[in-house]
Amino acid sequence: xxxxxxxxxxxxxxxxxxxxxxxxxxxxxxxxxxxxxxxxxxxxxxxxxxxxxxxxxxxxxxxxxxxxxxxxxxxxxxxxxxxxxxxxxxxxxxxxxxxxxxxxxxxxxxxxxxxxxxxxxxxxxxxxxxxxxxxxxxxxxxxxxxxxxxxxxxxxxxxxxxxxxxxxxxxxxxxxxxxxxxxxxxxxxxxxxxxxxxxxxxxxxxxxxxxxxxxxxxxxxxxxxxxxxxxxxxxxxxxxxxxxxxxxxxxxxxxx
Length: 256
Hints:
Blueprint: E1 2-5, H1 11-22, E2 26-31, H2 34-44, E3 47-51, H3 57-67, E4 74-77, H4 92-120, E5 124-128, H5 141-163, E6 169-173, H6 182-186, E7 188-189, H7 197-209, E8 214-215, H8 219-228, H9 233-246, E9 254-255
């Protein structure tokens, strides 16, 4: 069995790679940090590494072309990051790069591999989104919006596959806070205790192969998302803003 995992050098992606490796999977791992990829390759064995910047559309298509004939069984679209700040003040170029990674790369790889999987009626896709994909997120507006896209796209594809009785499966992982490098890159820390990436990865793999569509690790996050369904969008947005804004410290460190 062969898995292609994007954003595999840290966090959830790395833990999914390690988990699958222990189960005997052959891996193709991508990331921007070639040194970290080489360390993983040395540690895991049976691993091919591809240095790729998925904010560049050309590199996304090149990744697909390189892997299209490798008989991929599982695609894990894990690469992604967030940018904290007021929408009017955050850097536009940084946001566009984030959108390219969080949305465009996921869209391209999902579509192209899905077409291949449908031809042979075999294969799974795990798109890594976030519990943010069900919410509106002032001060992380673009990130929340990007994860909403991934959630809704994945659910829509799942229904199309169901109606054609396809054996191809798609799942979307929607964790709450996870103890990964996301915190540093977004410029935030979490106010609630995050789950470990090892736990999230193990939970995601089990639920993916059980055929679960929407995967939400953690009872607290599950309860929170359930409760959010009964709160008007405007009020929920106001609450989210106040929670995030109130955790901004005097030294400029943002806490969510």
